[in-house]
Structures are given as structure tokens and as C-alpha cells.
Amino acid sequence: MSQEKRDDLHEEEVQEASETENNASSEAEDIEEAEEENAEEVSPEAEEIEQLKAELEEAQNRNIRLQADYDNFRRRTKKEKEEAAKFKSQKLAESLLPAIDNFERALTIEPETEEAKNLLQGMKMVYNQISEALQSEQVKAMDTVGQPFDPHMHQAVMQVEEEGYESNVIVEELQKGYTLNDKVIRPAMVKVNA
After folding, report:
1. CB under 8 Å, gap of 24 or more: what pairs does 96-104 form?
2. For the range 19-24, what are the long-range contacts, defined as Cβ-Cβ under 8 Å and sequence gap of 24 or more?
């Protein structure tokens, strides 16, 4: 084979290789352009999907907060109903306590006549009925004499020095105190040892 033929063959191979490279780079450019077009086409859809995901997450968070608020409301309402039921008779009891005090003072009187004894007997019956009604509603008188003074349950109106009692101990009860389901509705008026 002559040198010219070899050179021609070599030139043809170089040209073919160059054309193949051009074709390959052209195809690569076409693929890149197609990908860019697809990216541009997908981009609005992808943005819409992301926006919908964000809206869904926000709605789910809002729903969780609303559910928690509702649960808190339900618990608070239940507690308020329980407290209302527990202390429903407080106002009535507070209104009756002065009448109970008057009954107790009247019952300390010694009757002189038969008629006064009968009247006193009737008053004792009424007093007992009112006391039982209050106890059925969990209204109870406090035990105070000999107990340590508690400012949450007692109202000190006098301070005395009595032998036989320790310091800060109640010596005498001047007016009964009452509780309703362990809540003080009227503190006891007491004398306290100094």
C-alpha cells in the first residue's frame, strides 16, 4: 500500500472520528436541552406539590393544636362541673350558719316552765334536722379547742395566757367554724394561748 492511500485512509478515519465526536457532542447537547426543558416543565408541578405538602403539614399542625385545645377545654369543663357539684350547697350552708348559731345559743337556756321545756324540745328537733341536712351535704363543724392555731381555719379574736395549754393552742371557741368537703366556709372564732 502506498503512502498516499494510507494517508487517505487515515484522513477518512480522522474525519469519521471527528464526525462521531460532533454527533456525540450534538446528542449530548440535545439531551441537556431536553433535560432543561423537562426541568422547566416539572418545575411548576414540583413547586405546586411542595406548596400542597406545606399546606397539608400546616393543616395537620392546626388540627393537632385544635384537638389539644378541645381536650383542655373538656378537662377544664369537667373539673368545673365537679367543683360546682361538690360545692353546690355552699351558699345555702353559709346562709343557714347564723340560724344554727342562734339555735345553739337558744338551746343553752334553762327553761323554767313546762311550756318553755316543750318549746325547747321543739327547737332541739328543728336544730337536729337542720344539722343532719347540713351534714348530709358534707357541711361539718370544726373541732378547735386544744388544737394548734391555723390561720387558714381559725380567726383569733383574743390572745390569753392559760396554764395547761401550750403556746399557740386554741383555748376557747367563741363561734363554730365549718367546712364543706374540706374547704373552710367559715373560720372558727377562737381564743389562742400566748
Report:
1. 96/130, 96/134, 97/178, 97/185, 97/186, 99/130, 100/127, 100/130, 100/131, 100/134, 100/176, 101/175, 101/176, 103/127, 103/130, 104/176
2. none
- The residue with cell 324540745 is 121
Residues 147 and 150: their CA atoms lie apart, in Å, by: 9
Grid cell listed for 86: 361538690
- Do residues 164 and 193 touch, judged by C-beta distance below 8 A? no
pTM over 0.70: no
Please provide the size of the chain in residues: 194
pLDDT in tens, 26-64: 565 666 665 555 555 557 788 889 899 999 999 999 999
Query: Which residue, 149, 154, 150, 151, is CA-closest to 166?
Result: 149
**Contact indicator for 136, 151 with CB cutoff of 8 Å:** no
Domain regions of the chain by residue span: 1-86, 87-193
CATH class of 87-193: mainly beta
Which tens digits make up the pLDDT trace of 128-173? 999 999 999 899 999 999 899 999 999 999 999 888 888 899 999 9
Task: Give, in order, the Cα–Cα distances in Å from 142 to each of 28, 34, 156, 157, 190.
Answer: 97, 92, 15, 17, 11
Which one-letter amino acid corresponds to residue 185?
I
Q: Please state, in angstroms and rounded to a whole number, the distance separating the CA atoms of residues 17 and 154.
A: 110
